[in-house]
Amino acid sequence: MTDATASIGELLTATVPMVRTLNLEFLETTPERAVLRLPDQPEYRNHVGGPHAGAMFTLAESASGAVVLAAFGPWLTRAVPLVVRAEASYRKLAKGPVKATARLVRPVDEVVAELDAGQRPEFWVSVVITREDGDTTGEVSVLWTLRPHD
């Protein structure tokens, strides 16, 4: 775990109650990608014994937030990141712990150029959720914006 991973993980754990509730683990956080893990916890399983869809969505959304913070940290004095919309697809039954890997779809410099031009940029973060065997169990796309401070 790098210092950046630890500090973003600590920040999200301290400020986002669901991150603490689900005991999400921050494995990697860089401006290019974030990897989070949801441990297998009986209290968050669904009716077929896998992680509940809501827990998997929260894992994915949290991973998207981690990569957004890592990528746009230097500009957060000028704008606040907010989720605009999200789309989730569940592909295979998940059992046991799962990981979410989030990646920005647009280059950071394009988004910042729009912010510099006085716009409120929007950008997608793609998240893949996998089981321990590497099979993809779900995909989540999260549309974020950087809302400039007044």
Description of the molecule:
This protein has 150 residues and is an alpha+beta fold. It has one domain (3-148): Thiol Ester Dehydrase, Chain A. Helices cover 31% and strands 35% of the residues. The protein contains four helices and six strands. The protein has helices at residues 3-15, 17-21, 53-72, 108-116, and strands at 25-29, 33-38, 79-90, 98-104, 122-131, 136-148. Strands 1-2-4-5-6-3 form a six-stranded antiparallel sheet. A hairpin with a 4-residue loop joins strand 5 (122-131) and strand 6. Helix 1 packs across helix 3. The protein is elongated and about 50 Å long. The N and C termini lie far apart (36 Å). The model has no long low-confidence stretch (mean pLDDT 95).
Distance between the termini: 36 Å
CATH architecture: Roll
Beta-strand level of the residues, as a percent range? 35-45%
Structure class: alpha+beta
Instruction: Work out the oligomeric state of the chains in this entry.
Output: single chain
Largest sheet: number of strands, sense, barrel closure: 6 strands, antiparallel
CATH topology: Thiol Ester Dehydrase, Chain A
Q: What is the averaged pLDDT score?
A: 95
Q: What is the CATH homology-level superfamily?
A: Hotdog Thioesterase
